[in-house]
Write a structure and sequence with these properties.
Helix content is 0%, strand content 47%. It is mainly β.
């Protein structure tokens, strides 16, 4: 996965053959020499997001199927992978709708969607169950502060949607119909 946090800047995160996480950056002129090992042992591809200049947040599923997080603060990587808990069967989906705000989603062992948020000071204590029954990892996007739109394929292979509308989640999953074989992508 790749992300750009500013002009002429690209950051790529990959899972190595040793199941560890690796990073490489483009500075507008050249790629850094070699791949920087960030450690950990992962079973899912990484997901990376940036909520501001010189800020990166990486997420992945560990060998225990729990969610893990590591951040670049502009000077250095956080020393250890931070466990966020949970039990997931899909790679995470992550979005930032503003500075110091992260929302992470995953498909739980019960096929329901789950959510956890960072508010700039702390992670919400527990994973919030958003329900549904899905066969694909989630896809999530934000088109403005305090707005999230999440998508996933139901067990019937139709596309479903749920939105955070500033003060709560819409109560039900909205079917968008169709019959699909790949996870959604949204922008």
């Amino acid at each position: 996965f790749a992300v750009a946090w500013g002009a002429n800047r690209l950051d790529i995160e990959r899972l190595g053959t040793d199941a560890g996480m690796y990073h490489k950056a483009w500075n507008g002129t050249a790629w850094q020499t070699g791949w920087e090992k960030l450690g950990g042992v992962f079973t899912s591809p990484p997901v990376v997001v940036s909520w501001g200049a010189n800020r990166l947040d990486i997420f992945g599923l560990g060998a225990d199927n729990a969610m893990y997080h590591k951040a670049w603060d502009g000077n250095a990587w956080q020393a250890n992978w931070e466990p966020l808990g949970g039990f997931f069967t899909s790679p995470p989906a992550v979005v930032a709708w503003g500075p110091n705000r992260l929302d992470v989603f995953g498909l739980g062992g019960d096929r329901a969607m789950y959510h956890k948020a960072w508010d700039g000071n702390a992670w919400q204590a527990n994973w919030e169950k958003l329900g549904g029954a899905f066969s694909s990892p989630p896809a999530v996007v934000s088109w403005g502060p305090n707005r999230l739109d999440m998508f996933g394929l139901g067990l019937d292979n139709a596309m479903y949607h749920k939105a955070w509308v500033g003060n709560g989640w819409q109560p039900n999953w909205e079917t968008l119909g169709g019959a699909f074989t790949s996870p959604p992508a949204v922008v």
